[in-house]
Each structure stands twice: as structure tokens, then as C-alpha cells.
Amino acid sequence: MAEWLRDPGGEGFAHVYRIDEVLFDERSAYQHVRVVRTPLFGRMLVLDEAVQTTDSDEFIYHEMLAHLPLVTHPNPRSLLIIGGGDGGLLEEGLKHPLERAVMVEIDRMVVDATLRFIPEIPGDAFADPRTDLRVEDGFAYVRQTDLRFDVALVDSTDPHGPSVPLFGAQFYGDLHRVLADDGVLAAQSGSPLYQRDLIAQVRRNMGQHFPIVRTYVATVPTYPGVLWSFTLGSKRYDPVEIGRDQIASRVERFGLRYYTADQHHAALNPPPFLRYVTAGD
Amino acid sequence: MAEWLRDPGGEGFAHVYRIDEVLFDERSAYQHVRVVRTPLFGRMLVLDEAVQTTDSDEFIYHEMLAHLPLVTHPNPRSLLIIGGGDGGLLEEGLKHPLERAVMVEIDRMVVDATLRFIPEIPGDAFADPRTDLRVEDGFAYVRQTDLRFDVALVDSTDPHGPSVPLFGAQFYGDLHRVLADDGVLAAQSGSPLYQRDLIAQVRRNMGQHFPIVRTYVATVPTYPGVLWSFTLGSKRYDPVEIGRDQIASRVERFGLRYYTADQHHAALNPPPFLRYVTAGD
To answer: In the sheet where A3-8 sits, what is the strand order?
Structure first.
């Protein structure tokens, strides 16, 4: 009897995947870290019971969390990533002409397991001379750093355990402090199908500090429920106002598979049944 | 221990749903027909092991299969639906100023079970004076009818058992015969993630008869893999060329929850990783 992975999404619903091979299976100080091979989606990084990223669809989540906010800023030179231990978000960010990218991941085991078993996801991102990988608590880092950034991205697990503070008003206030006067913040904000309260909370908490708050959506096949939300907080630039030509000129050389000028605006302008997301709580 | 429904999607992948209540559970001459209640998605119509439609997201599939082709035709007066026993597609079609809608469903039990346990999906569609519901084999009906239609929609289960001929070149040829000289056909054509061969087959078979073939996608949370494809064959009108204002004026009074002018074009212009779908095999 094959082993199956069960990734719950809301009450009484889950995605299940047959595990053909367990490549890595250890417990860190923070979570249960696994890399498994599945037939349809290839290798998967799994934290506790939740699929974080896969061979086959990682680019959707990472492109949407990286490029939409980076393109919203006209000239980002410095990037801060909180979480994102698999390096996929860092890799996307480094496609832009940044001078430096600081990534603060609390759990070294996530970085190491990905580098060893799904190295295609980070690619060369961790070896890039612009990268400063810091293995420490992102919440504490943002409280005390003297550095300033143009764009900050929060690639956290869902709010349980060490991720809880990463969805709070205090954290967004600290991120506001470390962002430049025209800085842009974006964070994953959960499922529009079964985490509506979380999205409302993120929007409310970001709105305490940022004058512009926009939630956008993408379709990630391996996240249960599949529609996924991201919320952006901005001091000056509104992603809704970025022109298609401007977007295309910024990303056309990147060879992206999901994010385009059309997807930028489609993500910010979802079908009517999701307008509650973008209209706020 | 609660009972769970398991809807497989490709190799080693499934959606699972906790069943809180079984409302209907019988076997027809064609399939195992169930209506169950689940916590996250409400009532579901299940044929064999596959979720067909639910309370909570039926509008996505039905709006996209109905309105995009109906709007592609400038003035549809007559509609043919093959399959679609739950009536959700018929209900959407009847929002247009049609003179008649013929629906040919092979399995009366699907119609009866939906009407009894999820009556909100068909609404009043089966009682509409424009509706002619025929319980018979759709393949045979299209072979012999003398009627002609402006738009034909194929809302079938995936190709197994009685649905197999509904994906073949013979059937699309027969549909071409019953369509007017400017007629439009559309059919569900499976998952872009694990039924790529099916999409290619549908495009190839439709292309033997229709000069214009377009595949489009939507996000249906309760279909495994969630990205879903539809393929349109047209004798004269190209859905890519329909203007946004024209679309909006046709559907603005319908109160739709997914299909809009923006979604029409987004569905035909998917992210790059899905371009193989629209570019053909």
C-alpha cells in the first residue's frame, strides 16, 4: 500500500498525493521538513502537513509574489525577503537589476533540504554575490536592522507557530520602517476560499501603516482550494496604475511562465465572486 | 470515522472531501449517481467518483461554458445542450434572449436527483417554456435531428463509458451539420495538467470540421488540478475578436459571478505555461 500525503485545506477538504519516494524526512526546531516525490507534481517540499512548493508549479507562486510588487516599484535596488527558505522567491527577485537581496529564513533545514533535493528551485540564487542569507528570526530582524529596502516580500507558512507574528500589525509597522519612502511590501495572505478572515486581517493590519493596500490572486494547483491570495502594501505606487507596456519592458527578458502584463492586471481584477477580497472586509 | 469522497485527478493525486450527509445514492443504467453534503463546498453532485458540480462553485464552470460561446455569436436564438443533466448550463444559457433550448441528457436520474436535492443549480430552467428536455442519447440525437441551432454546448463527463463518442471527430462533424452557417460549438475538454492528450484530441477533431478552434481555461476549485479547459469550434466568429464593450452589453444584466469581459479575454489568453493549450498540439 503506497503512502499518501494529505494536505488539508479548510474543513473537510484536502489534496492527497501518492508518495513514490521520500527524499528527506527530518524534524527541525520549528517544523517537520520533508521532500517527497509524487507522480503528477514531481518533487515537493512539505512543511508539517502543508505542501510549500513543487517542481512543477513553484513558478506560479514565486513569480506572482516577486514580480508584481517589484514591477510596482519603478527602480528597486534592494530587496528584503522574510521566509522563503526554498529560495524560489529569491531566484525570481534576483532577475531584477538589484544591488542586494537580504533573505531572512528562520529554519536552515528548509534551505539545506531544498538545495540538496530540489536545487532547480533556488537555482544559483544562494550563490549570487548580491544575496545575503541570514538564518534567524525574521520578525526580530525587521525590529532591529538599520538597513533600508525598496521592496520587502513575506513568504511565510500559514499562521501557526513561528509564523503567527508575521501576519500582525506590529510586523507590518516594522516593515514600514525599514522600507524607503516609496517602498513596496507584499505577503502571501492565504486562501480566498477558506481563509477569508486571514485576508481581511492582513488587509486591516497593513492598512494601519500603508496608504495603498491591494490584494491579488493566482491559481496554484498544489495549494488546496487552488485560488491563492497575496496582499500588497505600498507607500506611493499603486500596482493598478502600472501600464502594460511598462510591465512588459521590465520582465520580457526573464522568460517567465506565469507573470505577464495581462496576468498582473487580471490578478488585481479577479472575477466578481472574488471581489470581496479586493474590496476589503 | 467520517466517510470521505475521493475524486482522482491524474496519477497519484486526488481531492478528498468529508461527507457530512448522503442525500441521494443510486445506480442508474449509466453510472453511480450521488448527491452529498460537504462542509466546505456544500452539496455536490457526484457521478461515479467524479465531482460534477457543487453548490458553491457551479457558476464558474457553467458561466464559462455558456456565456463565452453564446456571446461569440452575435444573436443566438437557438441553443442545443448535450449532457448537462444538472441544468446549471441550461440556466445560464436561458439568460440570453433565446427562442428555444433543446437539452439532450442520457440519464434522467441526474436531472431528477439535482432537481430534488440541489434545485438552486437548475433554478427554473427545466420549467422554462423555451426548454425542450429530451432524455436520450445525445450522440444519436445529433446524428438524426432535422433541427438547426446557433450554438451547441457539450457538457459531458470525462471520456469513459457513454461519454467516449462525445469527444470524437464523428460527433463534431454531426454537430457541424446541425449548426447554422455561423454556428458556434463549445465543449469541456478536460484538465490542462493531466489530460493534455485529451485537449489535443478535441482540438484536432474539431479542427477537421470548424475553421476556428479556440481553447480557453478557467479555475474550478472542485475539479482536481483546478485549471480546467473548454474548446470552442466556430464557423465564422472568433471569440478573440469580440470587444469588451460588446461583451459587457450582452451580459451586464445577468448578475454573473465569474464571466466578465475581462475574464472572456483572460480565459483565451492564459499564462505562458498554458500556451501549449491554446497553441494546439
So the answer is: A3-8, A13-19, B13-19, B3-8
